[in-house]
Amino acid sequence: MGGRGGGEVELSSLIIPGGESTTMAKLAEYHNLFPALREFVKTGKPVWGTCAGLIFLADRAVGQKEGGQELVGGLDCTVHRNFFGSQIQSFEADISVPLLTSKEGGAETFRGVFIRAPAVLDVGPDVEVLAHCPVPSNKVLYSSSTVQIQEEDALPETKVIVAVKQRNLLATAFHPELTADTRWHSYFMKMTKEMEQGGSSSSSSSTIVSVGETSVGTELAKPDIPIYLSN
């Protein structure tokens, strides 16, 4: 990605946060950000998508608004854009996170904050499932003018996938930044360190950038393309 004056900002990682995914997609298309985002995903550097960021990283999405929306892709999964319902149906739940616990210690559960959240309906063979969330027995997974799948047909275990990892891509349907539990952030930082240690050229000035949120890192130049994301 370019900085002011034509310079280049060396990024070590990228976070695509929550927001209104349709608006994010329209703005990313308007500012021609999709090619750069897809190229970054292909570099193998860690990318973390939360909530709307999960939708962005998915290869396939359902439950979209009329006309659909463009996706960055790279994560072999199908995501339902608005699986858990409207804004007023947002909720918190304790979810089992065995891998996170084994890597970062702490409690066996994580308090997931789901805000008009998506969910992963299916994953490819290379995708590691990191967490599930219980689903009420009468929950409709998704519906459209042509398809309606009830929970008992699709998820007999009454749970849905809410966190996944595929190589350099991490995605969560919930918002870890809204809790005091920093284990997901620590896990992602270690992904970045592993990438830097394995790479042939890592710079002390490399940064972690969160698209649409406050950047974390050092010596980060302002991008020459404004980014406006809706929360």
From TrEMBL:
Keywords associated with the record: Glutamine amidotransferase, Hydrolase, Lyase
Highest taxon, organism lineage: Eukaryota
A single Gene Ontology CC term: cytosol
InterPro entries: Class_I_gatase-like, PdxT/SNO, PdxT/SNO_CS
Any one GO molecular-function label of the UniProt entry: lyase activity
The UniProt record lists the keyword Ribonucleoprotein: no
Gene3D superfamilies to which the protein is assigned, alphabetical: 3.40.50.880
Coiled coil (residue ranges): none
Reactions catalysed: L-glutamine + H2O = L-glutamate + NH4(+)
UniProt keyword Hydrolase present: yes
EC number per UniProt: 3.5.1.2
Active site: C51 (nucleophile), H175 (charge relay system), E177 (charge relay system)
Residues at which L-glutamine binds: G19, E20, S21, R81, I115, R116
GO annotation (BP), single: pyridoxal phosphate biosynthetic process
Top EC class of this enzyme: hydrolase
NCBIfam families, A to Z: PLP_synth_Pdx2
Family, similarity comment: Belongs to the glutaminase PdxT/SNO family.
Entries under PANTHER family matching the protein: PYRIDOXAL 5'-PHOSPHATE SYNTHASE SUBUNIT SNO, PYRIDOXAL 5'-PHOSPHATE SYNTHASE SUBUNIT SNO1-RELATED
Name this protein carries in UniProt: glutaminase
Organism of this sequence: Brassica napus
